[in-house]
Design a protein that fits this description.
Length: about 300
């Protein structure tokens, strides 16, 4: 069955965006023309692909199955076209990344401006969220996560500082009132500002010194979404509400300014830096290849 590739791309865009207006904005066309394109595709296939309501658009069962098979195939087509772009000059096109909030805050600002200056014909689209996502289903070319244990068909390469630490901190006023912990277990008697992942999981605070690992699960007056609302916990700590635990690089400006005081610094635990990961498909899009090469050449402290 002969089907226009543009019609298929339009369907994928609408399904991913969850609506015609959002997809139209991304593609630079009108929502009405996009709606007509999808109707034409449904007519040619003889099956409804999208369920439409006044508030949302979602794939039907047939549409979901088509999207599952179609998205990787279109990715291969885009990658093949990107290879041709190399013959006309510098890499061009859109690179979509899915990254944790911490990477968007602590790693990418040291990389993205220089990368975009070096490759002015590449456009970066970055989504920051802390849940693990299916890259292809989300329409992304690559992701960044703090764990190299990925699916078998993924390639992972280091990006950013290779060694980082979790730090704990509080305001001087809080510590003057409640005392300074000398051991991680002392935190059980303090007000601790906790974070919870989008999955609902809350991880214990982990400390390490001279080979001894101590995990504590303290309580406190504030619970925030990890990553997206971590700044609220930081501001609460500055205001004297309690003790916060976060990436050292995230808290470093507040240490330098004196707004926060390090807590249990000899116990701060080291962990490996983040990884850039992407599907191990045969053809890598030119923008992604340029980003991988650029990030690999970057010298991190």
């Amino acid at each position: 069955m002969a089907t226009d590739l543009g019609d298929l791309s339009a369907f994928v865009a609408v399904a991913r965006a969850g609506g015609f207006r959002e997809a139209a904005r991304t593609m630079g066309v009108s929502a009405s023309s996009l709606s007509e394109t999808v109707r034409r595709l449904e007519g040619a296939l003889g099956v409804r692909l999208l369920n439409r309501t006044t508030r949302s658009v979602a794939p039907t069962e047939a549409g979901a199955r088509l999207l599952e098979r179609l998205a990787p195939a279109l990715g291969e087509v885009e990658a093949a076209l990107d290879l041709v772009e190399d013959f006309r000059g510098r890499p061009a096109g859109t690179l979509r990344l899915n990254v944790p909030v911490a990477a968007a805050r602590l790693v990418l600002p040291r990389l993205v401006p220089a990368f975009l200056e070096a490759y002015p014909e590449i456009r970066l689209e970055i989504t920051a969220e802390d849940s693990f996502v299916d890259l292809l289903a989300a329409g992304c070319d690559a992701g960044i996560r703090y764990d190299e244990r990925l699916e078998q068909d993924m390639i992972a390469v280091p990006i950013g500082p290779r060694r980082q630490r979790f730090a704990s901190a509080a305001s001087r006023a809080y510590l003057d009132r409640h005392g300074r912990p000398g051991h991680p277990r002392d935190l059980l008697g303090h007000a601790c500002l906790r974070g919870r992942f989008s999955s609902g999981a809350m991880t214990a605070w982990e400390f390490e010194r001279d080979g001894e690992v101590v995990k504590v699960d303290p309580m406190g007056p504030l619970l925030v979404s990890t990553g997206t609302a971590s700044d609220l916990a930081v501001q609460a700590a500055i205001a004297g509400t309690g003790i916060v635990s976060l990436f050292e690089d995230w808290l470093r400006p507040y240490f330098d300014s004196g707004a926060l005081e390090p807590v249990l610094e000899p116990w701060w635990q080291l962990f490996s830096g983040p990884f850039l990961y992407y599907p191990g498909r045969r053809l890598m899009p030119a923008p992604l290849r340029a980003f991988v090469d650029f990030a690999s050449a970057r010298r991190w402290e």
